[in-house]
């Protein structure tokens, strides 16, 4: 059986470093800038060529957007691995910076040896359950990202509401003011 570290999992040393990372969080932009610095200031196509020279996959448009702080997509695992290699930042820290799940031991390695003796129907049930959990995790992750994006927009709305002359909320419809409604259900 492979250890989690051998599969890109978390070792005790990595777990210790993670604690320090969360106190002063590293951003994906920080990682991309470090990759650029370590490659002699290369950016864009030149950094893409350097990555390819090392057998890595890195799109120049992706790295340019990350460096500019305008990247809004979810980076691929191969992009994160390339940034880790080029920057010298451990992959675990790059995954944390990208807010991606940390690697764990493959599920297949955790199954008992006699799991191979399950019938076709039993296997189908196990696979369906795993697919359902995986789908739920993706949906939760997407909801978390959406909530974080919404929270990032909220301070602007609060700042606008704090300006003199801008109401913080819409007037209350139950304030006791008389209605202009004639009371009839008929359109006027």
TrEMBL record:
Residues 156-188 are annotated as: Disordered. Residues 156-177 have a biased composition (Low complexity). The lineage of its organism: Bacteria, Bacillati, Actinomycetota, Actinomycetes, Micrococcales. This is HTH cro/C1-type domain-containing protein. It comes from the Bacteria. Residues 178-188 have a biased composition (Acidic residues). It comes from Luteimicrobium album.
């Amino acid at each position: 059986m492979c250890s989690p570290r051998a599969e890109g999992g978390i070792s005790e040393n990595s777990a210790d470093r993670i604690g320090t990372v969360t106190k002063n969080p590293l951003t994906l932009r920080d990682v991309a800038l470090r990759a650029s610095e370590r490659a002699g200031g290369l950016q864009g196509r030149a950094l893409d060529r350097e990555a390819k020279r090392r057998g890595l996959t890195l799109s120049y448009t992706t790295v340019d957007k990350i460096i500019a702080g305008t990247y809004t997509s979810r980076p691929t695992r191969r992009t994160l691995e390339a940034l880790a290699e080029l920057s010298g930042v451990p992959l675990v820290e790059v995954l944390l910076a990208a807010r991606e799940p940390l690697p764990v031991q493959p599920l297949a390695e955790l199954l008992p040896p006699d799991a191979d003796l399950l019938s076709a129907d039993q296997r189908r049930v196990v696979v369906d359950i795993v697919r359902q959990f995986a789908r739920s995790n993706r949906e939760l992750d997407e909801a978390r990202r959406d909530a974080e994006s919404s929270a990032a927009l909220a301070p602007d709305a609060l700042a606008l509401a704090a300006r003199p002359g801008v109401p913080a909320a819409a007037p209350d419809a139950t304030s006791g003011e008389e209605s202009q409604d004639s009371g009839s259900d008929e359109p006027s």
